[in-house]
Amino acid sequence: MPDKEREREMHRTQTKVIQIGNQVIGGGNPILIQSMTNTKTEDVRQTVKQILELEAAGCQIIRCAVPTMEAAEALKEIKKQIHIPLVADIHFDYRLAIAAMENGADKIRINPGNIGSRDRIQAVVDCARERNIPIRVGVNSGSLEKELVEKYHGVTAEGLVESALDKTRLIEDMGYDNLVISIKSSDVMMCAKAHTLIAEKTNYPLHVGITEAGTLYSGNIKSAVGLGIILSQGIGDTIRVSLTGAPLEEIRSAKRILKTLGLYQGGIEVVSCPTCGRTRIDLIGLANQVEKMVEDIPLDLKVAVMGCVVNGPGEAKEADIGIAGGVGTGLLIKKGEVIKKVPEEELLTCLREELLHWEE
Length: 360
Known about the structure:
This protein is of the alpha/beta class. It is built from 14 helices and 15 strands.
């Protein structure tokens, strides 16, 4: 086994297995994709509607903000109408964490540093232990303790790791180890380094993401780079791509990142060539149409969209099926062999028909 594959196998198979509702993470299980609702959790109808849309797109764990007692109580009804584990995101008020668990949360996300006194953290841990509900211990670079900032002369990967392990030990000392760790930063390289360091120091499963990554454009680039570095080392058991945009975009991006790394099976991958002077069709528009069209087709295939008939068949050889444009016409290609010539306006329809009736 190549060194990189061995490294990937080593970390992921050695992490502790944690049950979250009807899902498990850690111990070499598949990396699960998460997102977070941006509706008001108190609005059950809208929150459920968004979660069901995310489920259909491939979301496997969903997190909801719980800023009020009304939001905590809404979880009970939300849970009845969804099919994936629900995580309650809690800050500052320990009573909300307890209420969220009493109303059916499958996991809670807290930062012990802002929950309050030891007695309040203990109350949360005791409630989680009674129900065997996992706790995600979250640490962000923006809230790193002052003493650790001073110790490491700034916000550093080492400081993030020490903070996370301190909080983990605090909960362990309270007699509980059903934990998931999250250490996040908007600094991509700091975040990657922190995960490399912590993977050598703990066997708790890691929730991985680049926090506050930004808009659809910059956030996708930062997330792809950061998650690519981390996951390629065999580190990470569940991920969220944090984008300033619709939660559905987070799922699409997460699936693509995992598929690119060979960590996600299923779904059609679209590859397309850059435009050049030989292009005689609207390749950009066509490629985008194809990518949108294949979203609802449950095949594990590679589809190529090529801009000209000169190199198209050759460039599409590694794809299962592809199309290549010409002047008012186009080619349908399977495994590098041209099987049909069709008018340009029929290329998309022809491709879809082939996919809908796909046979190996």
